[in-house]
Amino acid sequence: xxxxxxxQETFDEAVQENITEFEMEPEEAVREAxxxxxxxxxxxxxxxxAVRPPASENGQRQKHQILLTLExxxxxxxxxxxxxxxxxxxxxxxxxxxxxxxxxxxxxxxAYAAVLSACRLAAGDRELLLQAxxxxxxxxxxxxxxxxAAGRELLLRSLRERRGDAELTLAGIxxxxxxxxxxxxxxxxxxxxxxxxxxxxxxxxxxxxxxSAAELVRTAASALRVMTFDDDIRVPFGHxxxxxxxxxxxxxxxxxxxEAAKAFRDNSAVLSExxxxxxxxxVRNEFCxxxxxxxxxxxxxxxxxxxxxxxxxxKQVLSAIRAVAGNDDVKDALVDAGATELIVLAxxxxxxxxxxxxxxxxxxxxxxLRKPENCSVIMEGGGALAALQAMKAHPREVAVQxxxxxxxxxxxxxxxxxxxxxxxxxxxVLIAEARAAHRDCDDVARAALRDLGCQVELRELWTxxxxxxxx
Length: 471
What we know:
This protein is mostly helical. The protein has helices at about 10-20, 25-40, 65-80, 85-100, 100-110, 110-120, 125-140, 150-160, 165-180, 185-190, 195-205, 215-225, 240-250, 255-265, 270-280, 285-295, 295-305, 310-325, 330-335, 340-350, 355-370, 370-380, 385-395, 400-415, 420-425, 425-435, 440-450. The longest helix has 16 residues, at about 400-415. The two termini are about 30 Å apart.
């Protein structure tokens, strides 16, 4: 993707020029304009790739449909025409959901101020507020910079005052989640404003409404997970670790999530999200142990066995197992519970899924780390063979290759007797191929080959002499 960007008007003029100067059909004119700008390295992800309506008879330039909808909404807000707001909010939300380019165009033309004003006008009308929050969520998707302090306070107040209303809570949490993705400032401001107890409270409250609140639990868990991200490249460092600790220590997050998982055993979408969030919270040794104490370990092992056909659930359970296995005592508990065999089965059953292969190898890698007795169990259960099969199935997936190499190294680093059996499976060739194909695999592949007893060239990059490092 190119780093250059252009204005919507520039693209529209190029399309119009193709139509008038070169007599192209509208669709062809758009395609040609896209090719022209992409050839120049222009990023068109924020551009509406459609033909703008022709100028009116008096020569006035026409606007894209989403801007016409926005004008109608802004007029209804200015006139406080509550009767017109539902139609305009619904239309704006639907068009924003179509693609990011529509949202960007609306955002540049004052859509956020109009929708926020609509939210304020709808404060006493539940149905209208639902539509206004839905429009706000659609607009903020991919545009978290639009949110300001006033909008943040409106959302926090809505979550506090409407916590008994599942639909309004869900609508508010969707807005919060979109506003916090890739935006560290918004995350920190929401946490300071008290969003964490609101999110855990939403999950706890939803457990009493099992049938109708599954989506609320899933979305609230997802929002909690977003609070632990460190994905904003504009800040030197974030508060992801601090937020994870706050969720666990101050808001009893582990218990809330595990109890929710037990309540929604039959909903794979909810279970997948809950496991993904749990894996983000296992950031300290004692947190991993607390997950075991709360019954989370046995639950995850049972879930992996029962949901083997659901790829999304399998991937997230493997990720959670990988996270909690950072605790050495939990490693032993997982092996004793039969997790090793289930992980190998998951890799074999979903061999065509690179993400499951990656997470499965990573989970086995953690179980083997510093645990020679676990290495024997993994080897006997077919773990090394499964990892090598994953390498064969996904030669271009660097993450799979890297995790498999790390697993092989952990298996043999303290159990030299396993070198022969693993080499007999063809490990040396596969690891050498991974090293040659992926630069990111070089270190782990070299370490795996070295610990297997294979011939490896070890270069001394710097000898203390004046000069640059060898490349």
